[in-house]
Design a protein that fits this description.
With 469 residues, this protein is mainly alpha-helical. It has 18 helices and four strands. It starts with 29 loop residues before the first strand and ends with a helix.
Length: 469
């Protein structure tokens, strides 16, 4: 009995209307468990494996399996499934997935949401003891590790003596201020209209559209020094018409890696200059903020501007692809540069693809990288302004996630943590990039590309005087 009802000897997926089940000869509905089979044999094989069924044959396993008698002997039918090549692999994966989901479901069901977690109670009790000891005049102070390990922990005993002997300090009203702050934050969240788009989100997305327009414009200004970059107001504040009209001829005008990096860095500085908060701070603080955050914004932008379908290479708008080994015809001998590209791919691009970072989440993280209170050389007034903007961004991001995932869902809190954890990796890669430019420039390895990298080199050299990571 042939596999095909027609005279052809082979079949492709497009021919499955004429393909027979290799087990019983009925019409095959598709490729199931690595062989062409009908729905009946597919379901029979799946149940036999998933439920670990055992069959026996009254005719010593010599039954002929066909369309009409396939249900007569399950033993011989199962043996034929194995013989024609049906595989357990997919079923094993499915079985493990179901077991995992069942276990997870049991864990969730067993947890009593009406009862406070004992671990939480224990940790909070320790925290209360910690605070008592912090302000007690009777708290033991150790001079050596051996001294500290001589006695059992005071946390295991009564706190009465420590509560009775407290340091005489002024009332700071810390707890009251904290409660007022939390209440205000709660009011902000409750007052948010979930049906109305956040104006801050609209503003950040508009800047992102401008960024993309400038990225592919032949009229985009490219800076060679920081003074050059700060001479004029931001092009983001004006019309984008001229930049839309003068676009790069792609792919006829392909740029190299150094061109794209200089372009992204220059546009990033223009983007920074467009914020009203940035315009209102002293010029010295403006320089410090640009030096502090520009490399983090550069590497983050390189990763996010890569088309979504790529997670193993950086892809620029003209089609230039930079892979881990530069296999797309690019020959760059500097090992440091290659390691820098690998760092961007492994620690920024791959993770943001894995968590499926959205454009809204990207612009929030991008702006949080700019308004960073860890820039140590900022003046006190600017630090307060940056901290205020940072808090606004946090609240707005939280409200966005509440609207997207539900205000009472743990999912929004988990997503918030997942996003903020990206920042540390971005900063690490930025530090690696800065060090590369410092090292390569001092060794004069960049050669003819030094002019294209002059702005990046200057920012890298200024960083140690501005901040540290």
């Amino acid at each position: 009995m042939g596999l095909l009802k027609s005279s052809r000897s082979s079949a492709s997926p497009s021919d499955n209307a004429t393909i027979e089940c290799v087990v019983c000869g009925a019409h095959a509905s598709g490729l199931h468990y690595m062989v062409w089979s009908c729905n009946g044999c597919k379901t029979f094989f799946r149940r036999a494996i998933m439920e670990n069924r055992k069959y026996s044959c009254a005719r010593n396993g010599k039954c002929q399996i066909g369309v009409k008698n396939r249900c007569c002997c399950r033993h011989c039918r199962f043996e034929k499934c194995i013989k024609v090549g049906m595989t357990f692999t997919e079923l094993n994966v499915e079985r493990k997935r179901k077991v995992h989901m069942a276990n997870a479901s049991i864990l969730v069901e067993q947890f009593s949401w009406d009862q406070e977690d004992p671990l939480v109670r224990e940790l909070l009790a320790k925290q209360r003891q910690f605070r008592t000891l912090l302000t007690s005049s009777f708290t033991p102070i150790f001079s050596t590790l051996d001294h500290a390990l001589q006695q059992p922990s005071v946390f295991d005993g009564s706190m009465k003596i420590f509560e009775n002997f407290q340091l005489e300090i002024p009332e700071l009203n810390v707890e009251r201020k904290r409660k007022v702050h939390m209440a205000n934050a709660s009011i902000l969240v409750e007052q948010f209209s979930w049906d109305q788009e956040d104006p801050l989100v609209r503003e950040l997305l508009a800047k992102q559209r401008q960024f993309r327009t400038l990225l592919t414009s032949s009229f985009t200004p490219i800076f060679s020094t920081l003074d050059h970059a700060l001479q004029q107001p931001s092009v983001f504040d004006g019309s984008m018409k001229i930049f839309e009209n003068f676009q790069l001829e792609i792919p006829g005008n392909q740029l190299d890696f150094y061109d794209w990096r200089a372009r992204i860095l220059s546009i990033t500085v223009e983007w920074i200059k467009s914020f009203s908060e940035f315009k209102g701070i002293p010029s010295s603080d403006q320089r410090s903020l640009i030096v502090h955050c520009s490399f983090a914004l550069l590497v983050f932008s390189e990763a996010f501007q890569t088309p979504e379908r790529f997670s193993d290479r950086l892809v620029y708008p003209d089609g230039l692809q930079v892979t881990r080994n530069f296999s797309r015809g690019i020959c760059i001998p500097q090992n440091g540069l290659i390691r820098g590209i690998v760092a961007v791919i492994n620690f920024i691009l791959a993770p943001i693809r894995r968590i499926q970072l959205t454009e809204v989440e990207y612009v929030f993280l991008q702006t949080l990288l700019l308004f960073d209170t860890d820039c140590l050389s900022l003046s006190e007034s600017t630090l307060r302004l940056v901290a205020s903007k940072q808090e606004i961004l946090f609240v707005s991001l939280q409200r966005y996630l509440f609207a997207k995932m539900g205000a009472n869902s743990m999912g929004s809190a988990n997503r918030m943590a997942q996003l903020l954890l990206r920042i540390s990796n971005i900063q690490k890669v930025a530090a690696f990039k800065r060090q590369f430019f410092i090292d390569e420039n001092s060794l004069n390895i960049l050669g003819s590309n030094c002019a294209k990298s002059s702005f990046a080199i200057q920012l890298a050299n200024l960083y140690p005087d501005i901040s540290f990571f």
